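To: structure subgroup
Subject: Chain for Friday's discussion

All,

I'm putting the inputs and outputs inline so they're searchable in the archive.
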Amino acid sequence: MVTPDFFAQLERDVIRPGLCTYCGLCVGLSNGTLTMTDTSCGLLPTCTDAPPQLPALAYEACPGRRIDYPALNEAIFGAAPENWLTGHVRQMFIGYATDEAIRRRAASGGIITRTLIYLLEQGRIDGAVVVRQGQPQPWQA
């Protein structure tokens, strides 16, 4: 069931308090009625000209809805991260998919693509919601 009330709840519970993780899940599930808009607070979901059509699943699955990330960072690390996009980084590694076709066609070496394919093949997940490269701005997925 699709209803505009879920976007109002998302605005109240996640966007206005500053808990949005900029993942774009709500935009991807909004049937084109939401878009990510560049604001002074980063990219945030906003309504297009059409009334928002956000399913309950998008509201329930929102990663910012239940977690107060500023408080969580304070409790675990004692401070906010230097960069909210990367969070607290202790170690960093690089890698790539060994399947050449995936490596060449996927983003950043295909690590996530290959991992998701493996999880699907093994029956460990039923599906995955992913974003694609932004059009016409490739950096805005």
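Points worth raising on Friday:
The two ends are 26 Å apart (CA to CA).
The first helix runs from residue 5 to 15.

D.
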